[in-house]
Structure formats: C-alpha cells, structure tokens
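Thread: Modeling a multi-component assembly for a lab meeting

Hi all, long-time lurker, first post. My supervisor asked me to bring a structural picture of a complex we are working on to next week's group meeting, and I have zero experience with this. I have the sequence lines for every component (665 residues in total). Could someone generate the structure of the whole assembly? Inputs are pasted exactly as I received them:
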Amino acid sequence: MRFRAYAYDWVAWILFASVPVIVFWQCSTSLVEQDAAGGGPMENAALYPRVLAGVMSVLVVVQALRLLLGKVRQPSPFKAHPETRRALVGAGLFVVYLVALPVIGFHIATPLLCTGLFLLLGMSIVASVVGAVLLWLATSFVFAGLLNVVLPVGVYNISLFN
Amino acid sequence: MFDLIIKGLPLFFTLESVALTAFGILAGLIIGVLPGLGPLMGIVLMLPFAFHLPPIAAMGMLIAIYIGGSAGGSVSAILLRIPGTPLAAATLFDGFPMAQKGRAQDAIGLSMTASALGGLIGGAVLLFFSPLLARFALNFAPPEYCAMALLGVLTIALVSDGSALKGMLVGGFGLVLATVGTDEFTNAERFTFGSFELSNGPHVVAVVVGLFALSEVFFQIEFGGFADRPNVERLRVSFHALRLLMRHKVNLLRSSLIGTFFGAVPGAGGDVSAFISYAAARKMARPGEHYGQGEEGGVVATEAANNGCCGGALIPTLSLGIPGDASTAVLMGALILLGFFPGPELFRSHPEIAGGIFVAYIAGNVMLLILGVVLTPLFGRVLKVPKAWLLPAVLLLSMLGTYALQSSTFDLWVMLAFGVIGYVLRRSGCPLAPLIIGLILGPVLESNLRRSLLISHDGLAIFVERPISAVIVAIDLALLVAIVVSTVRASRQPPEPAATEPV
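Re: Modeling a multi-component assembly
Sure thing. I ran the full set together rather than chain by chain. Output:
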C-alpha cells in the first residue's frame, strides 16, 4: 500500500540509492585499476567520492525508513492527469527525433517533430505545418546563420544558412 | 567600489552590451508574464547564446533576464490570479483585488516601478557590500573555501521547498555528479564507464536545461489547456504609477532591504522575502489601509522585495562564489564557462568584469523602469498566446541551445535523461535547486578539501585551527542540526494530500 502511495518517492529513492552503489563499485574496480584509489589526498581520486557516497548511504537508509513507516508528509502516487497520455506521446516523439537526428539530419527531422507536436497539442493540420516550417526556418537562421552552429546534416548532407 | 564601476563602464557601454541588456529585460518580462516559465527558465534558454558573446554582453543579457523575469511574474498574478512565477505569489493578495476594482493598469504600473526601484536599492547594497565581502574573503585559504562550499549546499538543502532530507539527497546527488569525468589531480577517469563524451563530466547546461526546461514542458502538456486564451483587459502606457509609488516611500525602502537581505542568504529566495515584506507592510499599515482588499502598498511590498532579492543574491555569488538560489547558480555557471571564477579573485584579477556586471545590473533595473511601463500593453497580448504555440518552441530552443554548446548529440541525451530525472524529482516533492548548486560547487568543495588535507598532512584539525574556517564549520554543523530537527519534526506531522499541480 505504502509503495503505491509513495510511488514517485520510491523511484527517486532508487535513483539516490544507486549513487553510493555505483561510487563504491567504481572505486573498488575502475579506480583501483587506474591506481588512483589510494595514497595521499592528491593521489587518491576515490577519497572524496567515497566520503560523499558514505554520507549518501546514511541519508538513503533514513529516507527508506521514513517511506516504510509512512513518515513522508506528501504522498506521491502514480496518478494520471488529464493529458498524461498526450505528454507521454510527446516524450516518445522527442526520443524518436533524437534517434533520427544524426541519420536524417536537422532539416528533415525538425519540421517533422514540430508538426507532430503542434498536431499533438490540438492545432489544425494547416496551422501545424505552417507553424513547424516557420519555427524550423527561424531557429535554423538564428543558430546556423547567426551563431555559425553546424546543425546535424545527416546522411543526406543537408545544410542551410551555413 | 567606484573604481570598479569606472573600470566596468567602458566594457558595458558598447552598443552590443546595452542592446542585449535591453533585450534581456524584454525577454525576461515576457517569459515572466507567461505562467509556469520564470526567470530561471529564461536564463536557461538564453544560456547557450551567451557563450557566443563577449563576457559583459553575455552577463548583462542573463542578469537582465533574471531581473525582468522576477518582475514579469506579477502581471498574470494581477490580471489572472495566477502568479507567473512563485516570486509573485504574494503579489496577487492585493494585485488581483486591485484589478477587480478596475485598477489593473495602476497595479501593473506599481509592480513594474516598485520592482525596478527595489532592484536599484538592492543594487546599491550589492555595490557596497560585494567588494567588502570579497576583500574579506582574500583571507580565505582552502579550508575556508571548502567550508563555504559545504555551507552553500547545506543552506540550499535546508531552505528549499520540500523536506530538508530530500534537499540533502538531491544536493548529494549533484555533488557526486560533479565528480564524473577526469580527476584534475590524478587524471583518472571517474564514473565515465569508458565513455569519451563523459570525460569532462555531463555539461552543466545540458543538466540544467533537462532538469528545468524539459520537465516543465512535460508538466505543461500534462495539465492541458493548450488553446486557452484568457480574457484580459486592454492596457495602455502610463507613468501615473510613479506618482502613486511616491506615497509608499517607506514601504518601498523597507521591502527592498528585506528582499536584499533574504536574497543574500543562500536559499531563502525571492518568494520568502516577498511574503515577509508583505507581512511587515501589513503589520505597519496606516489607518485606513486594508491589505488583502486591493491595497497599493501590498503590490509595492512584494514586488520591491522580490527584485531587491536579485541584488542580494548576487552578493554571495560574486564575492564568495556561493550562489543564493538556482538562478544565481546558473548565472555563476555561465560566468565560469565564460572564463571567470566568481570570488575574491574576480575582484582582484578582473575588476573590470566585476564592475561591468555591477553596471549591467544597475542599467538593467533602469531599463526595467522604462520598458516595464512602456511595454505594458504588450503584456496582455503575451498572456493570450496559447500554450500550443509556446511549448514546441520552448522544446526546440532548449534542444538547439544544448546542442550548440559542443555540437554534440550526446548532450541531447544527457538533457533528456535529466528531463526524466527532473520530472521524477518534482513529482516526489524533491527540490531541484540543490542539484545545480551541488554540481557547480562540487569541484570547489573537492579541490579545496584535498588541498586542505595535503596542507594538514591528512588531518581534519586544519578546519578548526583556523579561526574563520572554525566559524564557518560551526555554522555548517548548526545547519546539519537544523536539518535533522526539521526532518524529525516533518516526520511527526500528519500526511498531506498528494500534489495535483506542477511542483
């Protein structure tokens, strides 16, 4: 029951608990292999992370006890909001965009992403396409034309304003 | 003090710096007016542009966004009863009733002029105290810097929203995150898992944009209302508010000083100072003043305080390298990435940069006084822009800004990862500011801890043998006790209902 009531707290707890685990694991493997886990303060790259991980371990245990005993004041259940599904679709679109970006390039991927987002947020097809093209051209001009940023060209090697 | 200003004047008074500061005020006001997007979001979105600019032009623009964003939040509080930023939450107590009485124009005019003058009073305190504090900090050696960095993280953890224990966990996560990459003393790769992209650690901008901007876009989509266009009364340009403000001179001065003081205390922030100055103004109300029913003094108190806070927050940031809140932490990160480390060394080695920043801050507030009034008709129109137009633009700007830093798609994945982390942390009631403070202060804490241990031949006694360090360590310990007490007290209180709005 308490796991459900404090669902987000538990997810955050897993994130925090993984930090000291990773630190202690890496300090006893990777840093030992690099000969940087012992000696004086200047030679010991593991000293400070170990101190932090020790402190975090204590805090993580206290937080787990508070969650188990229901002593956290505000519950945080997984609760869908009116548009949670739409937000998840938006997040999915962004992930697909990041995967596609190096392959098809900024100038193909971005208008597609923006059109998808505008449609997702309830705009008409015409407004979405026009808005996406304007947004893509404006940002391309600012970043590539004014700031000389080389935007991902993709396999088709498309660039604009550079 | 004056020699700093004189050295900074030529750096600031270039067409580029002045124009970008004015642009920063405009951008800050617009982003502050839009509910949900505050000064921090504005700074985060413009941060990548700043790295393509000269240092004073860049800092002028970012500080102006900080000032403008802090002031802009009052507009939606007054017109819609929705504070544009948490800083303006107390402004709606009297601002909204003023609007209901048909005095929205006066309320917005008062909020803009009080913000600008509050900011200028905060600026005067900044000008006076920063060089003094920086001079005092010249006595600092590694143990003092180490204890001060710890103080910054502990204070933010204690006073941030949510429980102090969660603040400590988030701050600890930020400190560990700062250790990722190549160790500066041994050149060992720490927690990189063989990834070349992580050898310099995650880029602070990618982390900040993910935590704040990306998670905010997700929250905003979740809560719907994409096509909403609120009914807002027509506003015009009027300097009448300046005359009204003169009736509240004492309130203005008192609230500005309260704001400046709380701004200088790391973590206290503008929202705390606005509520405290509102309470003070209410307590000292003149006969016939009815706070909470549309009293001009209520708007003056809260707005002067939350902009006075900007000047206050820059004092420890610039003179000690200890940021006062998440916005100043990002400003400090920007200054570091531009090649200047805040603290006494900034005042000693680069007085023209410190002076230029002071001039930019003062000029920003003067511009706010003018633009805040002149642009009043624009605010109503900005509030009518539907979220459906804004959110894709914010997402694209966040993404491009992060990519442009190093032309790296890896940074975009880091941004996405921290967007997810930011969402989970906000849902679980964890404050985000300690993560940024930890990430920025982490390298200062570690290098000075290791240097201190080297000087003392591995003993911790060095931290209590030196008088200044001993005092700061004592404050650190007092804060730790306060965190324990606050956690125990919070555990004894009955549970609250789950949050239904973005945290």
